[in-house]
Design brief:
about 30% strand, Thrombin, subunit H, seven-stranded antiparallel sheet, alpha+beta
């Protein structure tokens, strides 16, 4: 048998090699997706499925989505570049499906699927067969699928997609909130910050029964300024105006520190109305403001980036603490007139320190007397979500704190 040279073999199969290479390249591209760091080989799941056995993946058994996303080693807690992507990037550990649990928040769920939770609206697939897709309940299944090559999250009610619109029989208060409601409700019912708008429209203490100058628990007080008829039995918290909150940009008064003095129950309607003080933190005086103890702050918004460029500062923090951490309420000097809306997410940044450059522009090495000062770059310290806006200020919750956050730190688009 005559031996063939390498060149003869190559010439004989020169059309076969490119064909094999093209097939291999095509097979590799079909499973690659730029939104995810690992390959996904599972076929896309249809939006309208009749599979009633799908249960999804319960992450960590009893853990909520936020607890799973915050676990050490997850994509959310790993060191990432400070430079954010221009679009949604899936978290490296994003599950194929997730069963919503009681105690979850929309932020926590978004954080589990996405590296940057505020891109949630861009991967949410609105299924017209579901009446209100933004109402998510415990027991619902969220599925990560690919539609036209792009990652999308679909909703299956109670483990299966319902093909006909139906009214949810479950109470709306059972729906998953965007952020922890109890923290927001506590802040709003006993406000430590009062906006200028709230101050102007809030009812006020007129006087006390029996001409008491200082009012405390057990006393009856009279109040006026209610915009609607007062119902007997309704509860109010009484707050005194404290120090003025000035805008760092121009010095204008944007609001006031609020000091809780007492809580009371309406015993008689009318003008003035009568209230019995049931709790006393300090003495109550004429002119103190009343705020309803039954607060209903809509939290059915979706995390999203502002539609306009926003630059501002933190001007106050709930409880007056110096070091701000996760789930603390802060106030910023930007509001509706600046394009902010509930659900908007902002990054928190600390301005870099000014340090002397000892190596250059100094007469004597290592002396700072004549050294030129250099401004260090700002650093990202946390993430903040707006839950209530006024004209020039907004209330929000610190969702993530990577390091110490302080009053006057900057807030910008994430």
């Amino acid at each position: 048998m005559q031996l063939q040279t390498i060149g003869q073999v190559m010439n004989k199969h020169k059309t076969l090699i490119p064909l094999c290479f093209a097939l291999a390249l095509s097979a590799g591209c079909s499973s690659w997706n730029p939104f995810h760091k690992k390959e996904r080989t599972a076929a896309p799941v249809p939006v309208a499925s009749n599979d009633t056995q799908v249960q999804g993946t319960v992450v960590g058994d009893e853990r909520t989505a936020m607890e799973a996303a915050n676990e050490p080693g997850s994509a959310s807690t790993s060191t990432q570049s400070s430079e954010q992507a221009a679009g949604p990037v899936l978290a490296s550990g994003a599950p194929d499906s997730y069963v919503v649990k009681r105690g979850d928040t929309l932020w926590g769920i978004s954080k589990m699927f996405l590296r940057d939770p505020w891109y949630w609206p861009e991967i949410w697939h609105v299924n017209p067969q579901i009446q209100n897709p933004h109402r998510i309940y415990p027991g619902d299944t969220l599925r990560l699928v690919y539609i036209d090559g792009q990652p999308r999250v679909t909703l299956e009610r109670g483990g299966a997609v319902r093909v006909e619109p139906r009214v949810r029989s479950q109470p709306l208060e059972d729906a998953i909130r965007s952020i922890p409601y109890e923290i927001v409700a506590a802040f709003m019912s006993k406000p430590s910050v009062i906006s200028a708008e709230d101050f102007k429209k809030a009812p006020y203490v007129l006087a006390a029964k029996d001409k008491h100058v200082v009012m405390a628990e057990g006393n009856t007080i009279y109040a006026r300024g209610f915009h609607d008829p007062v119902e007997v039995g309704s509860h109010y918290n009484i707050v005194r105006l404290g120090a003025k909150l000035h805008d760092p940009d121009g010095g204008d008064v944007l609001g006031y520190d609020g000091v809780f003095t007492a809580a009371g129950k309406v015993t008689r309607g009318g003008d003035p109305a009568s209230l019995l003080l049931t709790e006393s933190g300090r003495e109550t005086l004429a002119g103190d403001r009343l705020f309803s103890g039954n607060v209903d702050v809509p939290l059915d918004f979706v995390p999203s980036a502002p539609k306009v460029k926003v630059n501002g500062q933190i001007i106050s923090v709930h409880d007056g603490v110096e070091m701000i951490g996760q789930y603390q309420v802060v106030v910023i000097n930007r509001g509706a007139r600046h394009g902010l809306a509930p659900g908007n997410v902002l990054g928190i940044y600390r301005l870099g320190e000014v340090v002397p450059d000892r190596e250059k522009n100094s007469l004597v090495h290592n002396l700072t007397v004549f050294a030129k000062n250099v401004q260090l770059p700002e650093e990202r310290t946390g993430t903040f979500m707006v839950f209530k806006t006024f004209d020039r200020i907004s209330y929000g919750l610190v969702m993530e704190a990577k390091s110490t956050i302080k009053v006057l730190d900057k807030i910008e688009n994430p």
